[in-house]
Amino acid sequence: MYDNFFKAIIVLSIFSSGVLGIGVEGHAQSQEIDSLKGLLSNVRGKPRFEVLYELARLNSTRNYDVALSYAAQANEVALSIGDSLAIVESSRAMGQMLLKLNNLEAAIQVAKRKA
Q1: CATH classification of 2-112, choosing from 3.40.50.880, 3.40.720.10, 3.40.50.620, 1.25.40.10?
Q2: In the chain, what are the helix, strand and coil shares in percent, each to the nearest 5?
Q3: For 67-82, what is each residue's pLDDT tens digit?
């Protein structure tokens, strides 16, 4: 009898710690996204690329459309400043989001572009 009770307590503890851990991580990520969004109006050039690229990365696990938008904006900045590494990074991010959105044709077109 006690054995089943302790098993139930252990399973409940593991489950609740997992749920709470995800909630805390999600909240922290949300705060980071909000902070980065606040920086966008004040940065230009390479720092702007870095903020946009990080926003794309943070949104890439759940918000594919939003991540794609940030990656595309980062790509525009990279092209405007002529940073070939940034162009490749943002193009790769765009391609990955397009694949997650099941838009294979657009992903192929992004991959074919030259830096």
Answers
A1: 1.25.40.10
A2: 85, 0, 15
A3: 999 999 999 999 999 9
